[in-house]
Structure formats: C-alpha cells, structure tokens
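In practice, a research group might receive sequence data for several interacting partners and want a quick structural hypothesis before committing to experiments. The following worked case mirrors that situation: the sequences arrive first, and a predicted assembly follows.
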Amino acid sequence: MADLFDKIYRDKGPLGKWAEQAEGYFVFPKLEGPISNRMQFQGKDVITWSINDYLGLANHPEVRKTDAAAAADYGSAYPMGARMMSGHTPLHEKLQQELAAFVNKEAAYLLNFGYQGMVSTIDALVSKKDVIVYDVDSHACIIDGVRLHLGQRFTYQHNDIASLEKNLQRAEKIVEQTGGGILVISEGVFGMRGEQGKLKEIVALKKKYNFRFLVDDAHGFGTLGATGAGAGEEQGVQDQIDVYFATFAKALASTGAFIAADQEIIDYLKYNLRSQMFAKSLQMQLVVGALKRLDMLRTMPELKEKLWENVNALQNGLKDRGFDIGTTQSCVTPVYLKGSIPEAMALVKDLRENHGIFCSIVVYPVIPKGLILLRMIPTATHTLQDVEETLEAFSAIRENLESGAYKRFAAGVMAAMEK
Ligand SMILES: Cc1ncc(COP(=O)(O)O)c(C=O)c1O
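A structural hypothesis for the assembly, expressed as tokens:
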C-alpha cells in the first residue's frame, strides 16, 4: 500500500516542478506599494501589467475613503453568520438591487467569492437528469462546478458554434430519455486570450434548441458595453442570458461576486447555493465598498474611456510592431512568442530587470508547448508613456529571443535542473 503523500513527494505537478527556479519570481512574486500602474518588485520600480484593476478603482482616493470609513463603522466581522441565518442586512439587499439594475436583470444575489459562487451556481442549476454543455477553455471555477454534476456533460471546442451545435444535439438525445434540461456555459470574455464568448451566436441557437444559458463575465463586467454592463450588453443579448455572473475581483477591484437573473431564478438560487447557505455572509466593508464602486461605474464614464484609450494604444502599438496578439476582443492583451519554458524565464527576467516591465507569463500546460504568452492587463491608471516604454521593451526582448540570446540562459537553467 502506498503512502497517500508518495505522489506529493515524487512530483509537485506540471507547474510545481519549476518551483525551485520560479517561486518568488515567476510565480508567487511579491508586488509592493500602492496598487497602480507602477509598483515595486524586489525593490525595483516596474510598470505593472498584471493587475485586473481595470478602472483604476483599487487605490482611487474616494474608494479608499469609503473602505476606511466602512471598516471604522462595521469592523471586519459584521454581519456574522450565513445570509440565511444571521448574515442578512438592508445594505446587502440594496447592493443586490443596484447590481441587478446595472446589468439589466430583475434580481441579483451576492456571492462571497466568484470562484466558489460559480461552482455552487452550476451545482444548484442542474440535477442528475440534466446535461451541461460548456466551452472547453472555461475557467477553473466552471470546470469545478461541472465536476460536481452527477449527470452527463460535454465540452464544445473553444468558441466553435458548429461544435456547440453538435454537442447540443447529443445533449438533446440524452434529455429526451432522462426528461432533464440543458445548461450551456460560456465566458463573456476568456481571460487568457481575451476573446469574447460568441454570446450572440450562442443565444441564436435558442431558436433551434431548448437550453438555458449561464455566462461568466468576470472580465467583461465594467469594461464592455455602452454602460459597462458587460459582454452581453456589448453584443446586444443581455436579455437572452438566463444567468449572468460577474466578480468584484476585477473592474470593481474588491472581493465578492454576484449572479443576476429573473426574480424567480434568483429566489430559487438563494435557497440552494450551498457555498452561500453554509458560509459566512459577505462582510459589510465589502458591501459598502461595492456600492461605492458601482456608483463610480455609473457616474464616471471617464474611467472606462481612459481604460480603452490605454487598451487601444497598447494593442495597436503591439500590432504595428508586428507582435501577435491573437484574437483579443477585450482589454486582456496577450502577446504570443515562440520559445521554451527556460527561454520564457530568461525573457521575463530581462523584461523585469532591464526594462522595468512586469507582466504575467503563461506557459505549457496552460497553453500549447513551445508557445510563450505574455499577458497584459491595461488599466485606467496607466499612461501613454507607460505604453510607449513597454512597446520599446517588447521590441528589445523580441530581438533577443529571435537572435537566440535567451537560449544560453535557458541552457544554464536546464543544466541546473539536471543536477
Ligand atoms: C473567468 C473568471 N471567473 C471566475 C473567477 C473567480 O472570481 P473570484 O476571484 O471572485 O473568486 C475569475 C477570477 O477572478 C475569473 O477570471
């Protein structure tokens, strides 16, 4: 019989195996100083392109004032208990009403964290007889929610409507037997590559197939659509999304999340979302903070305008310089380069140490082998000067990558690993 921990001692997993080379620098880095376009990394000033503070609210003076006052008024404990038991307040209700109105839905319900909230939403929406059909590139929280499902589930190829249709046909055959229904899940914006989910094409399939549609709009909320109501608004199909989900962790620069839908659906979910029924309510500081942030979203369109000025400058600048930024249709700005993982490490080190640019790096197994994805998140706090410096730096690192300069460093890393 094996010791349960044998596998842990043997292998830390596909990313964990790089821990010795990567930890503290490439993964689990410590960014210090106030959240903004420029922060400190290992004592050095860097332009930060890795924080989802899209609208620059994280450190906005009005937000900081509200957060501090709410902390003084309520502390960090209030209210105690789960919503259903003792954790319910008029301000929780007010925030729900305002969120629902903002995303053009009848009702909304707060979630403590987006991740566990999404897991529970999926869990609550389906029973064993139902079939889930979801995009193969879905966020981990969707995958975990689907894992709880006791019935059938199918993935469709990423944003591929023909593949979705094929799987809807498979699903239909099953639910004809079981008497269940079909849940389709997509993201509003896919956070790695920045593409919008094909929400418009997906809802058009409702004419042919009977399904309900759940959209995770973590990156679209606050950044897309005329009013910032997200990818559904941007594509003109918000009313066709049956359950809309967004987190406070990105455009609202906070913690918490919500789902929005018809009143009857929310009434059902609030009695059946296990992660909310059996967990402490969202603390008041976060509720008051979210009310303030939402008000700023509504009344300060200049924040989204500045964000998009920066997004366009960065994305157009990269394209003009011949960089491959894939098929992004959102603020998420990926840059695809070809190289090995050790080369990617050398490149990022060069970016940080010699150019003062801090962005996230994504490698296999998150993306295919041989590709390096540098993922940048522009925000309203960035300046056009930041964009210019970054474009210069990217041209320099591409030259080094193509001339093989990072290969030498890569060889050193590999040798160290083999020891
Ligand atoms: C697409 C998507 N869904 C859900 C979540 C989870 O949200 P939270 O951070 O509020 O748990 C994230 C990450 O924040 C995300 O990117």
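Before designing any experiment, note the following. The chain has a mean pLDDT of 95. The pocket of pyridoxal-5'-phosphate is lined by residues 113-115, 118, 139, 141, 187, 191, 216, 218, 247, 249, 257 (CB under 6 Å).
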